[in-house]
Design brief:
This protein is α+β, with helices and mostly antiparallel strands. It is built from 6 helices and 4 strands; from the N terminus they run ααβααβαββα.
């Protein structure tokens, strides 16, 4: 998704705050780890989100449970084809760490694509991450 394309606003509006928070968290932590490691000769590449939300009738013919989950607004896909090796290592480390702790799950979907979704028990946490990222005050008084 091109970040400056106006047509992408519809996708963002349909995605759950938890999915957007999980994406924000994964991207932030991947960048932080990458900056700490400073892989020689590599340039950081933004994560390419290839799928966020899709209408159920659009994904049903394609089949597969992962595709159908996109109609929920709770999952997203990242294409890692263009990532340099050091950044891909950082992304996989972040995903594995979050997965081992039960915050999210991910599966390989096709070639060079990761299908990612936060666990139901962590949706509130990731929704707060999203709210803080966009500067929305939370009920508890957190946020910016």
């Amino acid at each position: 998704m091109a970040p400056d394309a106006i047509e992408n606003l519809a996708y963002l509006a349909e995605a759950s705050p938890a999915a957007l928070g999980a994406l924000t968290y994964v991207a932030f932590e991947t960048r932080q780890l990458y900056d700490e490691l400073k892989p020689a000769g590599e340039k950081f590449q933004p994560l390419a989100v290839t799928s966020l939300v899709a209408a159920e009738e659009d994904v049903r013919p394609a089949g597969g449970p992962e595709a159908l989950q996109h109609s929920s607004g709770q999952v997203f896909d990242i294409d890692y084809t263009g990532l340099p090796p050091g950044e891909l290592e950082c992304l996989r480390f972040v995903l594995n760490d979050l997965g081992w702790d039960g915050y999210l799950g991910f599966v390989e979907e096709g070639k060079d694509n990761l299908h990612i979704g936060c666990s139901p028990s962590s949706r509130e946490f990731f929704a707060r991450v999203f709210q803080e990222a966009v500067g929305i005050q939370t009920v508890e008084g957190g946020g910016r």
